[in-house]
Structures are given as structure tokens and as C-alpha cells.
Amino acid sequence: MKKVLLVIMATIIFVSCQTQKRSIDYSIKNTYEEYYTLKTYKSFDEVWDLLIKEIVVENEDYPKVLEKTSGLLVMDYYIGNRHITRERKDDNKKLVDSLAYFVSPFTSTIDKEITEEELDSLERKKDEYSYYDSNEDYNNINKLLVEEKDVLLYIKLTDLGKEREIMIKFGNKGALKSTGNYEEKFLNIFESKLNQK
């Protein structure tokens, strides 16, 4: 009788282990730049004044640090779920959302990678204030990393003699990495506005 019970218990344990979903942790594999720069021949004052207009006035938010003499501007930047993506399981050189500002490590219980058709369908459902459902896109981003997370946005203006250099980067990101999309977009728009002066 004891042998029968042992066999039944072993079978139950084996079957339950087989049906339980396996959780796999995926770390960030790709390398991402830490900061981005732009050089200009415009004067220090011109560049600084435009930075204040673009960052402070447009965002209606006062910086934590605003020091013209050192050329340093530091602001809080809120990360919402819509700003975050992950690397694809089948090709870590590609992001699930190529427009996202940050990439996150993630945990998945689904072996299958999302297809391009499914991703296109999810992209159509996205709006300005939403991020696709983590289960629906097999994303499973660790929400503890991203919920109500503020990072610091650093902008440093340096006088190099004939040129001025603007450096932009995100700090205190934790496990998140910046994709560079925000920084490149900001610097492109900033350069265009600077050249109109």
C-alpha cells in the first residue's frame, strides 16, 4: 500500500512540475551609449538661453540644478510604461518597440517570441498614454523597475573655445538602459532650432 501511495505522489509531483510554466530571466544583452553630444559654433549664451527655453519653459518644470557658470542643468524625468521596451528574444539587436526611450531586463513564462504581425496589431492599439499589455505582447517587463520611476536628465554645456558642446544623458536608471531615442530626438530638434537663430 505504501509503495502505491509513493508512486501516486511521485506521479502527481512530476505532472505538476511539467505543467508549471517555466520562468526565464532575460538580461539586457546589447550595448547602449551612456551619453550623446552635439557641437555648435553658436555662442555659449545663445545655446544656454535656448536650452532654458526648450527644457524649462516648454516643460513648465524647474530644474533641480541650474548653473550657467558650470553649464549644468539637471531635471527630473518621469518614465511611464509607454517609454519602456525590451530586446527581442529571437534577436537582441532589435527592440520590441524601436521608438521607446528605455530598454529593460525582463522575465517571461512564454517560450514563443511575439510575431511581427502581433506586434503590428499591438502598435495600432497604442495611443499616447498607453503601453501594450505586458502579457499580451509576451513582454513581462519587471514592473518594479518602471512604475512611477523618476530618473534624472543631465544636460551639460561646455565651452571648447571655438565650439560649444552639449552633452545629454540619463542618470539613476537602475537596471534600465537608455536607447538613445529621446536624446537623439532632443538634439536633432535643438540643433534645428539653434540653426534658425
Give the topology, please:
Blueprint: H1 2-19, E1 24-26, E2 36-40, H2 44-59, E3 65-67, E4 72-79, E5 84-85, E6 102-103, E7 106-108, H3 116-125, H4 143-146, E8 149-159, E9 164-171, E10 177-178, H5 181-196
Parallel strand pairs: 5-6
Antiparallel strand pairs: 1-7, 2-9, 3-4, 4-8, 6-10, 8-9
Question: Quick summary of this structure?
Answer:
By secondary structure, the protein is α+β, with helices and mostly antiparallel strands. It has five helices and ten strands; from the N terminus they run H-E-E-H-E-E-E-E-E-H-H-E-E-E-H.
What does this structure look like?
Helix content is 32%, strand content 24%. It is built from five helices and ten strands. β3 and β4 (72-79) form a beta hairpin.
Question: Which features does this protein show?
Answer:
single chain, 3-stranded mixed beta sheet, alpha+beta, 197 residues, elongated, 5-stranded antiparallel beta sheet, 10 strands
How many strands, what sense, and barrel or not for the largest sheet?
A: 5 strands, antiparallel
Extended strand count:
10
Oligomer: single chain
Which percent range fits the helix content? 25-40%
Low-confidence stretches: 127-144
Element order: H for helix, E for strand: HEEHEEEEEHHEEEH
Structural class: alpha+beta
Rg, nearest Å: 23 Å
Count the DSSP helices: 5
As laid out across the biggest beta sheet, the strand order is: 2-9-8-4-3
- Report the β-strand fraction as a percent range: 15-25%
How far the N terminus sits from the C terminus, by CA atoms, comes to: 91 Å
